[in-house]
Fold:
Amino acid sequence: MTIRTARPNRAQHFQPRLYCLKKLESILLEMQDTKSGVKGTEQKLNITTIPHVIAGNDTIAWISNKMKTTTEEAQAFGTMLVAYGYIYPLQNHKKLVMCNDSSLYRFQTPYFWPTQKWVPDDSDYAIYLAKRNIRKKGVLEPYEQAHYNHLHEWLNHKWDFIVMQAAEQYKAGKERKKPDRVVFDCQERAYWMVNRPPRCAHSAMDCGPERLIDPNTDEKTTFDIYRRKNMFYQQAIMRSKVKSSVSLGALVKYITTYKNHDPLLASCLPSNPWQTDHDAYWTLNMRRVEVPTKMRVERWSFSLFELLSDLRGRDDFKIFLKKEFSGENLAFWEAAEELKWGTSSSMSTKAETIFKTFLAPGAPRWINIDGRTMGLTVKGLEHPHRYVLEAAQTHVFLLMKKDTFFRYLKSPTYKDIQKKALNPEPHNFSPANLEQNALNRSPGIHPIILWQQEEEEKAKAAAASAPVDVKAMMSKIDRKK
Structure:
């Protein structure tokens, strides 16, 4: 939608928001013209007659005819007028959109336009909610009740004054005629709906992290702003830069490496289960399958992250480390992952176990990290949290990446699994086979059930590897006898 306007002068460039709102208001004044504007009629709202009511379809038709644009763009422009509070709905006050039907709207009084000088602070909103609470006899809408409770705590020191002001305004409002009283109530409610919307609702008056209440204020450039800009430019100059040819080369290398493993670019072997309803792909790629596929084993060689992300690859890596008597680094990395993603209740216990197993002097599986990282980690374990082992875990990961990972790729362990890996033949299903597969479709195992099964297997393995207390076993046997 194109609105032809005069070019703003130099002073107007410093207030672009105010300039745009002024242009909206000039169009709004044309819409309210009695001769050439949108025709308004009297409508009954419940039992009260409301004057100067406009319909949504009439408003959109006027905008479309005036601006020579489509109905969709005219509706978007009308929605912008509603969102900024220049027009408010009478029936559904929460829905700040312009509907292309017989929905009823009214023009907002200029006193409540966004370009006015008065700033709606929390005290004004508290007085409005207190007045509405008196009128509704304590029955507010949920979002209003939440705002009311929050302001009651926030402004408790002057709440008596707020309630007194609300009672005086309520008495003054009762002296007006009922149509005028209903119109003013709708105008006030529409204003606060724009400036204090319900929580998690979008507002046109929001601008960045802070709400821009008064659009007439000039932005002042302080010394602190210049200082921050200077720091930003210094950091930008010192930041390492990469040539576009290098970055494009890295992107091409990444795509070349992963293109055969992308199901959108390459076909799944033996078949895509989402298309054929055949579960062979899921069976061959289970998390801890005994013999993996060649594609899966090939992906382990891409990076250490890919190897550790695959539980089957991690198990194979453990076998290699066990042969080299250097499995403490991977065990520490796994323990740090469990601490990071585990429950909060077990955090202190896990942190103490990790310290005694890997970090304490004379620990059974002591890891070799530099003194600075060790000091920071041990100090952080005094008040453990999820990321207390982040520095030590990163250090151990880099050690495995530089040394152990490349030795694993050259080891007989990896070469043996490459030879044993499966290379499934692609399925060729006829339409009749696809229909039969759909009929034989069975629900898969839920991920939570899989996780529970893995935890049970871990517990059994830990119990099997734990040392046996002969005295305790003999005492149990004696009791049974």
Remarks:
- The domain at 261-420 is CATH 1.10.167.10 (Regulator of G-protein Signalling 4; domain 2).
- The CA atoms of residues 276 and 429 lie 8 Å apart.
- The longest helix spans residues 390-409.
- The radius of gyration is 35 Å.
